[in-house]
Amino acid sequence: MSRELDLQALRLLALIEDEGSLGAAGRRLGITQPAASTSLRAFETRWQLRVAERTPRGTRLTADGETVAAWARDLLHQVDTVRGGLQALSARRSQGGSDLGVAASLTVAEFVLPRWIGELRASMPEVHLRLQVQNSDRVDDLVRSGECAIGFVESTRVSEDLARRVVGADRLVIVVPASHPWARRSTPLSREQLLAAEFVVREEGSGTRSTFERALAAQPRIAMVAASTTAMVGAALAGVGPAVVTPYAVRAGLDTGELVEVRHDLDLERPLTAIWRRDRPLDDPAAALLRIACRILAA
Hints:
This protein is 47% helix and 22% strand. The chain is α/β, with parallel strands linked by helices. A 5-stranded mixed beta sheet has the order 4-3-5-12-6, sandwiched between helices. Helix 9 (207-216) links the parallel strand 8 (198-202) and strand 9.
């Protein structure tokens, strides 16, 4: 049987988690409940997993389903980004207008950049943006190559030949599920205790991972490598291991008590930095985006 990913089934899983009902999730997708049920059963058969179960109050995801849904959200975000980019590219070709290539690391792209872009478009509606979401090292490459006019990273590692400006700061947090022994600690964890644990981390080249490694002054022991913040949070909730993430990503989990922030002795603050080529002064749209970022993060 083919192991190709079924995007509709993945959207269905994410919507079941949001809606708590297979029928409601199907309606959000514009399909009937029988069609939604068939899609879900086919997905479970294809991957030999049980991802959802019926309850008296509706449909809920299993532990495996929650993990898959967390992974799916990041993938679907990327798919929607590509679709939106293609639509914008098509519209620009037919209508004209200026083009701005922006590269951003995942934390910036998910949690702060949308507001900046909204303000830019409100003041400069003729600007069409091409957004690339990559890890910090790749953002650096895209700006150096000239593929993107401006980039935003959350890493201290920036190429020396790039111009840069710190626009704000972010302090990472270590989170565990409420059932984890660390959740009940009243004293901070030492560096030695953290080095003995296995963590859920981002891939190499990620600003989140480099900040954690710099603070530890060592390579952490790894339980799982995740390509997105959403996947890290899902893995932490599933008990795979503690996760080091931006607080933007776990506010809901911390508010509900599903996740607990762990006290520790590390300095996990990192700058949010704009970068661009020294030999190419920022054009009006890129300069405007930089001003908006600085103003909002300083507020």
